[in-house]
Protein backbone atom coordinates (compact mmCIF):
# COMPACT_ATOMS: atom_id res chain seq x y z
CA UNK A 1 0.00 0.00 0.00
CA UNK A 2 1.15 3.49 -0.83
CA UNK A 3 0.75 4.83 2.66
CA UNK A 4 2.62 2.04 4.32
CA UNK A 5 5.62 2.42 2.07
CA UNK A 6 5.93 5.94 3.33
CA UNK A 7 5.82 4.85 6.95
CA UNK A 8 9.56 4.46 6.90
CA UNK A 9 9.97 8.16 6.48
CA UNK A 10 7.32 9.16 9.00
CA UNK A 11 9.85 10.42 11.52
CA UNK A 12 11.66 12.33 8.76
CA UNK A 13 8.35 13.75 7.62
CA UNK A 14 7.49 14.77 11.14
CA UNK A 15 10.83 16.49 11.56
CA UNK A 16 10.25 18.43 8.35
CA UNK A 17 6.73 19.32 9.40
CA UNK A 18 7.89 20.69 12.73
CA UNK A 19 10.40 22.80 10.78
CA UNK A 20 7.37 24.22 8.93
CA UNK A 21 8.49 22.81 5.61
CA UNK A 22 5.91 23.56 2.93
CA UNK A 23 6.69 20.53 0.79
CA UNK A 24 6.25 18.21 3.76
CA UNK A 25 2.88 19.78 4.46
CA UNK A 26 1.81 19.35 0.85
CA UNK A 27 2.78 15.74 1.00
CA UNK A 28 0.88 15.28 4.26
CA UNK A 29 -2.18 16.95 2.78
CA UNK A 30 -2.08 14.98 -0.46
CA UNK A 31 -1.66 11.76 1.48
CA UNK A 32 -4.37 12.17 4.11
CA UNK A 33 -6.83 14.90 3.10
CA UNK A 34 -9.16 12.51 1.25
CA UNK A 35 -9.38 10.11 4.21
CA UNK A 36 -9.91 12.94 6.72
CA UNK A 37 -12.44 14.67 4.47
CA UNK A 38 -14.33 11.40 4.08
CA UNK A 39 -14.52 10.99 7.84
CA UNK A 40 -15.61 14.59 8.42
CA UNK A 41 -18.16 14.42 5.62
CA UNK A 42 -19.52 11.20 7.10
CA UNK A 43 -19.95 12.89 10.47
CA UNK A 44 -21.39 16.29 9.54
CA UNK A 45 -23.00 15.26 6.21
CA UNK A 46 -22.72 18.77 4.76
CA UNK A 47 -20.20 19.50 1.99
CA UNK A 48 -19.70 23.14 2.85
CA UNK A 49 -19.30 22.59 6.58
CA UNK A 50 -17.05 19.59 5.96
CA UNK A 51 -14.75 21.73 3.79
CA UNK A 52 -14.57 24.44 6.46
CA UNK A 53 -13.90 21.80 9.09
CA UNK A 54 -11.22 20.12 7.00
CA UNK A 55 -9.45 23.44 6.73
CA UNK A 56 -9.73 23.97 10.50
CA UNK A 57 -8.47 20.44 11.10
CA UNK A 58 -5.34 20.93 9.02
CA UNK A 59 -4.69 24.21 10.79
CA UNK A 60 -5.06 22.40 14.12
CA UNK A 61 -2.74 19.61 12.98
CA UNK A 62 -0.25 22.19 11.78
CA UNK A 63 -0.34 24.12 15.04
CA UNK A 64 -0.34 21.12 17.35
CA UNK A 65 2.33 19.01 15.68
CA UNK A 66 4.51 19.55 18.75
CA UNK A 67 1.81 17.93 20.85
CA UNK A 68 1.82 14.78 18.78
CA UNK A 69 3.66 12.01 20.61
CA UNK A 70 4.86 9.23 18.32
CA UNK A 71 5.27 6.89 21.28
CA UNK A 72 1.56 7.08 22.03
CA UNK A 73 0.27 6.21 18.61
CA UNK A 74 0.49 6.49 14.87
CA UNK A 75 0.46 9.88 13.13
CA UNK A 76 -2.49 9.00 10.91
CA UNK A 77 -4.47 7.74 13.92
CA UNK A 78 -3.70 10.99 15.71
CA UNK A 79 -4.84 13.00 12.68
CA UNK A 80 -7.99 10.89 12.42
CA UNK A 81 -8.78 11.54 16.07
CA UNK A 82 -8.26 15.30 15.65
CA UNK A 83 -10.60 15.24 12.64
CA UNK A 84 -13.18 13.06 14.30
CA UNK A 85 -13.27 15.12 17.50
CA UNK A 86 -13.48 18.39 15.61
CA UNK A 87 -16.30 17.16 13.40
CA UNK A 88 -18.28 15.61 16.26
CA UNK A 89 -17.91 18.83 18.30
CA UNK A 90 -19.21 20.82 15.31
CA UNK A 91 -22.09 18.38 14.86
CA UNK A 92 -23.08 18.68 18.55
CA UNK A 93 -22.82 22.46 18.43
CA UNK A 94 -25.10 22.48 15.42
CA UNK A 95 -27.59 20.21 17.14
CA UNK A 96 -27.80 22.38 20.24
CA UNK A 97 -28.39 25.50 18.17
CA UNK A 98 -32.12 26.23 18.52
CA UNK A 99 -32.37 28.11 15.22
CA UNK A 100 -30.57 25.50 13.12
CA UNK A 101 -32.01 22.42 11.59
CA UNK A 102 -33.22 20.33 14.48
CA UNK A 103 -32.28 16.70 14.31
CA UNK A 104 -34.00 14.31 16.62
CA UNK A 105 -32.26 11.18 17.74
CA UNK A 106 -34.49 9.27 15.41
CA UNK A 107 -33.14 11.25 12.48
CA UNK A 108 -29.62 10.49 13.64
CA UNK A 109 -30.31 6.83 13.24
CA UNK A 110 -31.49 7.40 9.71
CA UNK A 111 -28.35 9.33 9.04
CA UNK A 112 -26.26 6.47 10.32
CA UNK A 113 -28.35 4.07 8.24
CA UNK A 114 -27.92 6.17 5.13
CA UNK A 115 -24.17 6.09 5.58
CA UNK A 116 -24.10 2.62 4.09
CA UNK A 117 -25.01 3.74 0.64
CA UNK A 118 -24.47 7.48 0.25
CA UNK A 119 -20.78 8.19 -0.34
CA UNK A 120 -19.08 7.54 -3.60
CA UNK A 121 -16.09 5.38 -2.82
CA UNK A 122 -12.73 6.72 -3.85
CA UNK A 123 -11.30 4.57 -6.67
CA UNK A 124 -8.01 4.33 -4.78
CA UNK A 125 -9.78 2.55 -1.99
CA UNK A 126 -12.04 0.17 -3.84
CA UNK A 127 -10.04 -2.74 -2.48
CA UNK A 128 -10.53 -1.40 1.02
CA UNK A 129 -14.19 -0.87 0.32
CA UNK A 130 -14.61 -4.49 -0.67
CA UNK A 131 -12.97 -5.53 2.55
CA UNK A 132 -15.23 -3.26 4.55
CA UNK A 133 -18.28 -4.66 2.84
CA UNK A 134 -17.37 -8.07 4.07
CA UNK A 135 -17.84 -6.86 7.63
CA UNK A 136 -21.01 -8.10 9.30
CA UNK A 137 -23.71 -5.41 8.94
CA UNK A 138 -24.65 -5.30 12.64
CA UNK A 139 -21.01 -4.83 13.59
CA UNK A 140 -20.47 -2.24 10.91
CA UNK A 141 -23.50 -0.32 12.11
CA UNK A 142 -22.10 -0.23 15.62
CA UNK A 143 -18.68 0.97 14.49
CA UNK A 144 -20.31 3.70 12.44
CA UNK A 145 -22.53 4.75 15.31
CA UNK A 146 -19.64 5.01 17.76
CA UNK A 147 -16.87 6.16 15.44
CA UNK A 148 -18.73 8.48 13.09
CA UNK A 149 -21.66 9.35 15.33
CA UNK A 150 -19.66 9.92 18.48
CA UNK A 151 -21.99 7.73 20.51
CA UNK A 152 -20.93 6.42 23.90
CA UNK A 153 -21.52 2.77 24.71
CA UNK A 154 -24.58 3.72 26.73
CA UNK A 155 -26.01 5.90 23.96
CA UNK A 156 -25.37 3.18 21.40
CA UNK A 157 -27.05 0.60 23.62
CA UNK A 158 -30.09 2.80 23.99
CA UNK A 159 -30.10 3.63 20.29
CA UNK A 160 -29.94 0.03 19.18
CA UNK A 161 -32.10 -1.21 22.04
CA UNK A 162 -29.39 -3.61 23.16
CA UNK A 163 -27.95 -4.42 26.60
CA UNK A 164 -24.74 -2.48 27.39
CA UNK A 165 -22.77 -5.72 27.71
CA UNK A 166 -23.83 -6.82 24.24
CA UNK A 167 -22.69 -3.49 22.80
CA UNK A 168 -19.29 -3.84 24.43
CA UNK A 169 -18.87 -7.39 23.20
CA UNK A 170 -20.02 -6.50 19.72
CA UNK A 171 -17.61 -3.54 19.48
CA UNK A 172 -14.72 -5.79 20.39
CA UNK A 173 -15.88 -8.44 17.91
CA UNK A 174 -16.30 -5.82 15.16
CA UNK A 175 -12.80 -4.45 15.53
CA UNK A 176 -11.27 -7.90 15.84
CA UNK A 177 -13.02 -8.88 12.61
CA UNK A 178 -11.78 -5.68 10.97
CA UNK A 179 -8.28 -6.41 12.14
CA UNK A 180 -8.43 -9.91 10.69
CA UNK A 181 -9.94 -8.70 7.41
CA UNK A 182 -7.12 -6.20 6.82
CA UNK A 183 -4.44 -8.63 7.94
CA UNK A 184 -5.12 -11.00 5.11
CA UNK B 1 -1.48 -7.65 35.96
CA UNK B 2 -2.78 -10.04 33.40
CA UNK B 3 -2.00 -8.43 30.04
CA UNK B 4 -3.90 -10.98 28.01
CA UNK B 5 -7.01 -10.41 30.07
CA UNK B 6 -6.65 -6.67 29.69
CA UNK B 7 -6.34 -6.99 25.92
CA UNK B 8 -9.37 -9.25 25.84
CA UNK B 9 -11.48 -6.90 27.96
CA UNK B 10 -12.42 -4.83 24.92
CA UNK B 11 -11.15 -1.52 26.31
CA UNK B 12 -8.54 -1.19 23.56
CA UNK B 13 -11.25 -1.45 20.89
CA UNK B 14 -13.29 1.21 22.66
CA UNK B 15 -10.15 3.32 22.97
CA UNK B 16 -9.42 3.34 19.24
CA UNK B 17 -13.04 4.17 18.53
CA UNK B 18 -12.80 7.16 20.89
CA UNK B 19 -15.50 5.78 23.17
CA UNK B 20 -13.65 5.82 26.50
CA UNK B 21 -13.63 8.21 29.43
CA UNK B 22 -10.63 10.46 30.05
CA UNK B 23 -9.52 8.23 32.91
CA UNK B 24 -9.71 5.08 30.78
CA UNK B 25 -7.82 6.84 28.00
CA UNK B 26 -4.96 7.78 30.35
CA UNK B 27 -4.93 4.21 31.65
CA UNK B 28 -4.64 2.72 28.16
CA UNK B 29 -1.91 5.16 27.15
CA UNK B 30 0.03 4.41 30.31
CA UNK B 31 -0.24 0.62 30.02
CA UNK B 32 0.56 0.63 26.30
CA UNK B 33 3.82 2.41 27.01
CA UNK B 34 4.71 -0.22 29.61
CA UNK B 35 3.54 -3.44 27.92
CA UNK B 36 4.67 -4.01 24.30
CA UNK B 37 1.85 -6.54 23.80
CA UNK B 38 -0.74 -3.90 24.56
CA UNK B 39 1.04 -1.41 22.33
CA UNK B 40 1.16 -3.94 19.50
CA UNK B 41 -2.53 -4.79 19.80
CA UNK B 42 -3.34 -1.08 19.88
CA UNK B 43 -1.31 -0.50 16.71
CA UNK B 44 -3.08 -3.34 14.93
CA UNK B 45 -6.49 -2.02 15.90
CA UNK B 46 -5.51 1.53 14.91
CA UNK B 47 -4.24 0.37 11.55
CA UNK B 48 -7.43 -1.57 10.94
CA UNK B 49 -9.53 1.46 11.80
CA UNK B 50 -7.33 3.70 9.67
CA UNK B 51 -8.00 1.46 6.73
CA UNK B 52 -11.65 1.36 7.53
CA UNK B 53 -11.75 5.14 7.60
CA UNK B 54 -9.86 5.25 4.32
CA UNK B 55 -12.62 3.22 2.73
CA UNK B 56 -14.75 6.34 2.90
CA UNK B 57 -12.14 8.64 1.40
CA UNK B 58 -13.55 11.55 -0.59
CA UNK B 59 -11.29 13.91 -2.46
CA UNK B 60 -11.85 17.41 -1.03
CA UNK B 61 -12.12 20.40 -3.42
CA UNK B 62 -8.81 21.98 -4.41
CA UNK B 63 -9.86 25.24 -2.80
CA UNK B 64 -9.27 23.78 0.68
CA UNK B 65 -5.62 23.11 -0.10
CA UNK B 66 -5.19 26.51 -1.73
CA UNK B 67 -6.64 28.24 1.31
CA UNK B 68 -4.43 26.26 3.63
CA UNK B 69 -1.28 27.03 1.67
CA UNK B 70 -2.20 30.72 1.91
CA UNK B 71 -3.22 30.56 5.55
CA UNK B 72 -0.38 28.60 7.14
CA UNK B 73 2.99 30.12 7.98
CA UNK B 74 5.69 28.13 6.23
CA UNK B 75 9.41 28.40 6.60
CA UNK B 76 10.97 29.94 3.54
CA UNK B 77 12.95 27.28 1.63
CA UNK B 78 16.57 27.79 2.68
CA UNK B 79 18.75 25.78 0.31
CA UNK B 80 17.90 27.03 -3.20
CA UNK B 81 17.36 30.62 -2.28
CA UNK B 82 20.64 32.48 -2.79
CA UNK B 83 18.95 35.83 -2.64
CA UNK B 84 16.92 35.78 0.52
CA UNK B 85 14.04 38.12 1.02
CA UNK B 86 14.65 40.91 3.47
CA UNK B 87 14.05 39.81 7.05
CA UNK B 88 11.49 42.53 7.44
CA UNK B 89 8.77 41.79 4.93
CA UNK B 90 6.61 44.89 4.44
CA UNK B 91 3.71 42.77 3.22
CA UNK B 92 3.79 40.33 6.12
CA UNK B 93 1.90 42.71 8.34
CA UNK B 94 -0.13 45.56 6.95
CA UNK B 95 0.29 47.83 9.93
CA UNK B 96 3.88 49.07 9.39
CA UNK B 97 3.09 50.06 5.82
CA UNK B 98 -0.06 51.73 6.97
CA UNK B 99 1.76 53.44 9.82
CA UNK B 100 4.51 54.67 7.48
CA UNK B 101 1.97 56.02 5.03
CA UNK B 102 0.13 57.74 7.82
CA UNK B 103 3.33 59.24 9.22
CA UNK B 104 4.40 60.54 5.83
CA UNK B 105 0.94 62.00 5.20
CA UNK B 106 0.87 63.62 8.63
CA UNK B 107 4.37 65.06 8.20
CA UNK B 108 3.50 66.49 4.81
CA UNK B 109 0.30 67.92 6.26
CA UNK B 110 2.15 69.55 9.15
CA UNK B 111 4.77 70.97 6.78
CA UNK B 112 2.12 72.39 4.48
CA UNK B 113 0.26 73.87 7.45
CA UNK B 114 3.45 75.36 8.83
CA UNK B 115 4.40 76.83 5.49
CA UNK B 116 0.91 78.27 5.01
CA UNK B 117 1.07 79.81 8.48
CA UNK B 118 4.47 81.28 7.65
CA UNK B 119 3.12 82.76 4.40
CA UNK B 120 0.10 84.25 6.13
CA UNK B 121 2.16 85.85 8.88
CA UNK B 122 4.63 87.13 6.27
CA UNK B 123 1.76 88.61 4.27
CA UNK B 124 0.34 90.26 7.39
CA UNK B 125 3.73 91.79 8.23
CA UNK B 126 4.09 93.06 4.69
CA UNK B 127 0.61 94.58 4.78
CA UNK B 128 1.42 96.32 8.06
CA UNK B 129 4.67 97.63 6.61
CA UNK B 130 2.88 98.92 3.51
CA UNK B 131 0.23 100.61 5.65
CA UNK B 132 2.77 102.35 7.88
CA UNK B 133 4.83 103.35 4.84
CA UNK B 134 1.72 104.80 3.24
CA UNK B 135 0.94 106.80 6.40
CA UNK B 136 4.51 108.03 6.55
CA UNK B 137 4.36 108.92 2.89
CA UNK B 138 1.10 110.83 3.38
CA UNK B 139 2.44 112.79 6.33
CA UNK B 140 5.62 113.55 4.39
CA UNK B 141 3.56 114.71 1.43
CA UNK B 142 1.46 117.05 3.56
CA UNK B 143 4.63 118.26 5.27
CA UNK B 144 6.21 118.95 1.90
CA UNK B 145 2.99 120.74 0.87
CA UNK B 146 3.11 122.89 4.00
CA UNK B 147 6.75 123.62 3.39
CA UNK B 148 5.95 124.59 -0.20
CA UNK B 149 3.21 126.94 0.98
CA UNK B 150 5.40 128.40 3.66
CA UNK B 151 8.24 128.79 1.23
CA UNK B 152 6.14 130.58 -1.34
CA UNK B 153 4.74 132.88 1.32
CA UNK B 154 8.22 133.51 2.62
CA UNK B 155 9.37 134.30 -0.91
CA UNK B 156 6.45 136.69 -1.39
CA UNK B 157 7.17 138.33 1.96
CA UNK B 158 10.84 138.56 1.11
CA UNK B 159 10.07 140.04 -2.28
CA UNK B 160 7.75 142.53 -0.66
CA UNK B 161 10.11 143.46 2.10
CA UNK B 162 13.21 143.65 -0.01
CA UNK B 163 11.79 146.38 -2.21
CA UNK B 164 13.48 149.75 -1.58
CA UNK B 165 11.49 152.23 0.49
CA UNK B 166 9.74 149.64 2.62
CA UNK B 167 9.19 150.81 6.16
CA UNK B 168 8.28 148.79 9.20
CA UNK B 169 6.02 150.17 11.91
CA UNK B 170 5.39 148.23 15.12
CA UNK B 171 1.93 148.51 16.67
CA UNK B 172 1.33 147.62 20.32
CA UNK B 173 -2.02 146.97 21.85
CA UNK B 174 -3.59 149.49 24.22
CA UNK B 175 -5.36 148.59 27.44
CA UNK B 176 -8.08 146.76 25.44
CA UNK B 177 -5.46 144.33 24.12
CA UNK B 178 -2.44 144.57 26.36
CA UNK B 179 -0.55 141.72 24.77
CA UNK B 180 -1.38 142.73 21.20
CA UNK B 181 1.55 143.12 18.88
CA UNK B 182 1.79 143.48 15.13
CA UNK B 183 3.92 144.89 12.37
CA UNK B 184 2.79 147.08 9.49
CA UNK B 185 4.92 147.23 6.34
CA UNK B 186 4.37 150.20 4.10
CA UNK B 187 6.21 151.32 1.02
CA UNK B 188 5.44 154.93 0.19
CA UNK B 189 6.88 154.56 -3.31
CA UNK B 190 4.96 151.48 -4.41
CA UNK B 191 2.01 152.29 -2.04
CA UNK B 192 1.89 148.72 -0.95
CA UNK B 193 0.88 147.87 2.60
CA UNK B 194 1.06 144.54 4.52
CA UNK B 195 0.69 143.36 8.08
CA UNK B 196 2.24 140.64 10.20
CA UNK B 197 0.17 139.75 13.24
CA UNK B 198 2.37 138.63 16.12
CA UNK B 199 -0.38 138.47 18.71
CA UNK B 200 -3.93 139.77 18.63
CA UNK B 201 -7.01 138.55 20.51
CA UNK B 202 -9.26 136.25 18.48
CA UNK B 203 -12.47 137.76 17.06
CA UNK B 204 -16.05 136.57 16.57
CA UNK B 205 -16.72 135.07 13.12
CA UNK B 206 -18.61 138.15 11.97
CA UNK B 207 -15.76 140.49 12.92
CA UNK B 208 -12.45 141.40 11.32
CA UNK B 209 -9.54 143.63 12.12
CA UNK B 210 -9.21 146.73 9.96
CA UNK B 211 -6.11 148.81 9.40
CA UNK B 212 -6.33 152.51 9.02
CA UNK B 213 -3.76 155.03 7.84
CA UNK B 214 -4.03 158.47 9.29
CA UNK B 215 -2.98 161.31 7.01
CA UNK B 216 -3.66 164.90 7.89
CA UNK B 217 -5.95 163.78 10.69
CA UNK B 218 -8.15 161.79 8.30
CA UNK B 219 -8.48 157.99 8.68
CA UNK B 220 -8.11 156.10 5.40
CA UNK B 221 -9.19 152.46 5.02
CA UNK B 222 -6.05 150.35 4.64
CA UNK B 223 -7.79 146.97 4.37
CA UNK B 224 -9.04 144.14 6.63
CA UNK B 225 -7.02 141.18 7.97
CA UNK B 226 -7.37 138.08 10.16
CA UNK B 227 -5.82 137.46 13.53
CA UNK B 228 -5.91 133.63 13.43
CA UNK B 229 -2.98 131.62 14.66
CA UNK B 230 -2.31 130.32 11.18
CA UNK B 231 -1.87 133.81 9.83
CA UNK B 232 1.56 134.35 11.18
CA UNK B 233 2.73 135.09 7.68
CA UNK B 234 2.66 138.52 6.22
CA UNK B 235 -0.78 139.46 4.92
CA UNK B 236 -0.73 141.80 2.01
CA UNK B 237 -3.65 144.19 2.12
CA UNK B 238 -5.60 145.04 -0.97
CA UNK B 239 -5.29 148.79 -0.66
CA UNK B 240 -2.94 151.45 -1.94
CA UNK B 241 -1.68 153.94 0.65
CA UNK B 242 0.34 156.91 -0.61
CA UNK B 243 0.29 159.02 2.51
CA UNK B 244 0.40 158.02 6.16
CA UNK B 245 1.34 159.84 9.35
CA UNK B 246 0.27 156.98 11.55
CA UNK B 247 -1.41 153.56 11.40
CA UNK B 248 -4.25 152.33 13.61
CA UNK B 249 -6.16 149.05 14.07
CA UNK B 250 -9.84 148.76 14.96
CA UNK B 251 -12.28 145.87 15.26
CA UNK B 252 -14.96 146.17 12.58
CA UNK B 253 -17.71 144.04 11.14
CA UNK B 254 -16.61 141.48 8.55
CA UNK B 255 -15.65 143.15 5.30
CA UNK B 256 -14.64 146.38 6.99
CA UNK B 257 -16.24 149.75 7.60
CA UNK B 258 -15.90 153.05 5.69
CA UNK B 259 -15.03 154.86 8.92
CA UNK B 260 -13.23 153.51 11.95
CA UNK B 261 -15.16 152.70 15.10
CA UNK B 262 -13.14 154.53 17.65
CA UNK B 263 -14.49 152.61 20.60
CA UNK B 264 -12.78 149.50 19.27
CA UNK B 265 -9.41 151.06 18.58
CA UNK B 266 -6.76 148.64 19.77
CA UNK B 267 -3.50 150.07 18.67
CA UNK B 268 -2.02 153.09 17.03
CA UNK B 269 1.50 154.11 16.15
CA UNK B 270 2.96 156.96 14.20
CA UNK B 271 5.09 156.47 11.13
CA UNK B 272 8.50 157.67 12.08
CA UNK B 273 10.01 160.14 9.81
What does the model show?
The complex is a heterodimer of chains A (184) and B (273). Chain A is built from 10 helices and no strands. Chain A is an all-alpha fold and 184 residues long. The longest helix of chain A is centred in the first third of the chain and has 23 residues, at 22-44. In chain A, 29% of the residues are buried. Among the domains of chain B are: 3-54, no CATH class; 166-270, Immunoglobulin-like. Chain B is built from 6 helices and 8 strands, in the order H-H-H-H-H-H-E-E-E-E-E-E-E-E. Chain B starts with a helix and ends with a strand. Mean pLDDT of chain B is 85; it is low at 80-85. Chains A and B meet through helix 3, helix 4, helix 5, helix 7 and helix 8 of A and helix 2, helix 3, helix 4 and helix 5 of B. Chain B: InterPro entries: Anti-sigma-K/W_factor (IPR051474), Anti_sigma_zinc_sf (IPR041916), RskA_C (IPR018764). Chain B: It is a single-pass membrane protein. Chain B: It comes from Spirosoma sordidisoli.
Q: Helix count of chain A?
A: 10
Helix content of chain A: over 70%
Work out the number of β strands of chain B: 8
Protein chain pair with the most extensive contact, residues per chain: A-B, 63 and 42 residues
Largest β-sheet summary of chain A:
none
CATH topology of the largest domain in chain A: Rna Polymerase Sigma Factor, Chain: A
CATH architectural category of the largest domain in chain A: Orthogonal Bundle
Q: Give the ordered list of helices and strands of chain B.
A: HHHHHHEEEEEEEE
- N-C termini distance of chain A: 13 Å
* Cα gyration radius of chain B (Å): 63 Å
Oligomerization: heterodimer
Order of helices and strands of chain A: HHHHHHHHHH
Mean pLDDT level of chain B:
85
Under the CATH scheme, which architecture of the domain at 166-270 in chain B would be assigned? Sandwich
Task: Let me know the largest β-sheet of chain B.
Answer: 4 strands, antiparallel
CATH topology of the domain at 166-270 in chain B: Immunoglobulin-like
Domain RNA polymerase sigma-70 region (chain A): 28-95
Protein name (chain A): Sigma-70 family RNA polymerase sigma factor
Family (chain A): Belongs to the sigma-70 factor family. ECF subfamily.
GO molecular function (chain A): DNA binding; sigma factor activity
Amino acid sequence: MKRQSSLVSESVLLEKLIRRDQQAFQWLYDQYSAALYGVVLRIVRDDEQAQDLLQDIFVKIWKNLDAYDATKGRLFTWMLNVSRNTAIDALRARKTQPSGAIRTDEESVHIVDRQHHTEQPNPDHIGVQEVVNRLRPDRKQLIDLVYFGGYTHEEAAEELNLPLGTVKTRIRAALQELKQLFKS
Amino acid sequence: MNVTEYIASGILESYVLGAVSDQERREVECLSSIYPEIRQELDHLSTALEQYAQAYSVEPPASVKENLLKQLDFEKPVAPAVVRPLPVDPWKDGSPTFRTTWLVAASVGILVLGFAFFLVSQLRTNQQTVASLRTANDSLKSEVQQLHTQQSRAEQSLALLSKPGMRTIELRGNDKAPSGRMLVFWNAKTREVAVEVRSLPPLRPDQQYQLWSLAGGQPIDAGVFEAGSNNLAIQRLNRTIDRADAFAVTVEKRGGSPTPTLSTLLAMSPVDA
